[in-house]
Amino acid sequence: GAEGSTLMSYFSKNQIQALKPKITFSTLRDLQCPVLQSNDLQGKPEKSCSTEELFEWLGAVLNHVSLDNKSSSFLSTYCCPEPNTVVEKAFLCTITGFIIPEKIIQLLEQLCCYFGEPKLAYWLTLTVHGFADSPVSWRENEHGFHKGGENLYNFVIFRNLDYWLQMAVGAHDDCPP
């Protein structure tokens, strides 16, 4: 009836716009990056960094934390793990919104095309965050917000198309499948 069409009109004007993902691009210059080897999850002294070191570094980069370990910094004295290399330009793209799994697969496929010519990157990452206050996380079970509402996974894809999959979830949640 009339009530239904009024509701549809309201949602089409207000809600559909809100569901459109917001995309932001930034270029990070002279970024210190951990050296990674796809077959070396634990890392090796002076040869490569571990998955845990990468995950921590990625958190710092995504939150725009300085990596130069200045004692005068009240925010962070974090520095990039060793061994590392300075990358002249790194691209950071953030997509915020409600994104269906099929779109994430599409994004992964497009990112892998980046390893074509010119072969500039050794590896790249795709991090997918669930909303911190999402009602469910993994396996359709209730998501315990408690402290941080952790609910994310991260792909690290290498030039040879090997990949790592890292998952993080809150202490009161089910482990991912």
From TrEMBL:
InterPro entries: RNase_P_Rpp40. GO terms for molecular function: ribonuclease MRP activity; ribonuclease P activity. It comes from the Eukaryota. One of its GO terms (cellular component) is multimeric ribonuclease P complex. Pfam families: Ribonuc_P_40. GO terms for biological process: endonucleolytic cleavage in ITS1 to separate SSU-rRNA from 5.8S rRNA and LSU-rRNA from tricistronic rRNA transcript (SSU-rRNA, 5.8S rRNA, LSU-rRNA); tRNA 5'-leader removal. This is RPP40 protein. It comes from Helopsaltes ochotensis.
